[in-house]
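Box 3.1 A note on notation
Throughout this textbook, protein chains are presented in two layers. The first layer is the amino acid sequence; the second is a token string describing backbone geometry. Keep the layers aligned when reading.
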Amino acid sequence: MSKPSTPPEKSHKSILKTGVNWSLITGCVLVIIIIILAIYGPSIAPNDPREHKLIIQIDGKWLTPPYPAFTPGYPLGSDNLGRDLYSWLLWSIRPTMILVIIVAGTRMLLGILIGVIAGWSDRTVGRIFDWLIAGALAVPTLIAALIIITAVGFKLGVWAFVVGMSFTGWAETAQLVRERTRTIKGQESIEAAIALGASNSQTFFLHILPQVMPMIWMLLAFEVANSLVTSAGLGFLGYYLGGAVFTEVDDFVYQRISEMPELGQMLATAWMVLDEPWAMVAAGSVVFAVVLAFNLLGDGLQARLTRKLGGMRNLYSFIAGEVIPWLNRYISEPVQNIIHRRAFRYAAGAFLVAFAGLSILWMHNLWTERQESATKPVVTVGHYVTATRVTVTAANDDPEATPTGDSSGSENGQVVHSSPLQVPGGHIWASEGHDPWRARWVDYSGPLTTTIQWTLEREGGFVGGPAIDAEGILYIAAREVTDNGVESGNLIALDGEGTVIWETTLDRKPVGSPALAADGTIYVADKLGLNAFSPAGALLWHYTSPEGDPTADGPIIDADGNLYFKSYAAMNALAPDGTLRWRTAITENAASLPPHLSVDEQAVFWRNLGYNAKDGSPYD
């Protein structure tokens, strides 16, 4: 009686081969988490990251952006426009993943197609594709993407990045697929199949594709990771989705921002606040996690699909032996017979001509409607050009234009928001910054095409920007210099056609932009004070600053007609009749933007300073 044999001990190698596929499991878990964040990230974000909050109150203290990390409501702080970076991060995952998946899919399709053709063909076509692959490999993907995106332009949005990042990004995939195809093609089993009469399609589907597929799925996961790395590199260099958007930081002065939350954009702009690195660390960590997830997924898929190779070969055998002949017999051949008939050709030609004609007519009507909506002359942000002339362009009169800007206040340490504020008197552009709150929104969209309607020139140039009342009358201050070097100025009123309605003289050089009260009174600052004019151009009163304190900026006006302006040494408040309400000294004399009011008009702000609008007492 023989002893039962003891089972052999498993080697370390066999345990690893038959054990758990940790790469696949870890990669799948991380990818699932990323997908959940991409889908639900905007829903769990505490704030709308596109909303600007230029001032908030926390624990009784007024703060201006950028807000530091761990500020209540701002775990990662904010950028210099007051946008919540934590919410921006949650919103950025979805568009970034959509971009890299589209790019990875495009690269993969191009790489597979070119690689299979180059590896399968031994003729001129194969050599041409070999040269194409070699040329694409010689150009770095990042450099090619920079050139293509710059040439195509940001206006194409995501497709500019798809074209740029895919232009040469397919080359590595094509090279690997080509080499794999040539290796498989040289196997004895392939030569035997061809010798036994197998067609090219049967050889490809039965023997080539089943051995290429495991590598393709692995490369697809790697391609997503590579696309994200390229996207992050482009973002760090200043090329990111929505990067062609500019916001006004002063009247007719712009700063480039991103309109779309995106990880590359965060990497491009987070370094601007060097003492608050949390945003860059968070964005870099997300990029690292996504790249790691798809790399692990690629490794796991490679191991998993390699073990499933036999099942995949059976699937492709069924496709080549059953599905393709059925498609040829019942679909391909009948369709070809119909196409070759003359009547079908005539009908198809007539349909294409009709479709092209209707498309041209539709595009013409659309263009005409857009042009007709752009005929009302309005000076809006960006249309005041050069220092010596005013240029008015045609802007869209779109009642559905979405207002943008800051309309935020605060209450009890919590940030609160109000609906878009209405300018007193309904003026189109009431003061520098559009209104006393500097909300910078207007009920007109930008021009479809820039067309010069009229031009006004003055030798001394213009000071500040224009103001436009509810009737479309434009007011602008011009500088005049006499022969003996004395500076004075003029206040000019023009209609929408550029005709001068009236012009009045200022004794001193004007400062800043004019401002409009609800009753139509025009206020314009000069070098040493403030002037009030009636809508007809008559001087109502003149205020002179005490002790010759020079005026720094133009005024702002609240709903009751009270005026606020800054001089070099003080913040000043005047009543509608020109009497001084209060004057508070300022020790900081740096040049800056004009003051602005809080949404409830109870506070006046300038730079980092705040004052009670009633008595001028400063806030701590």
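The longest strand covers residues 474-481. The chain has 13 helices and 24 strands.
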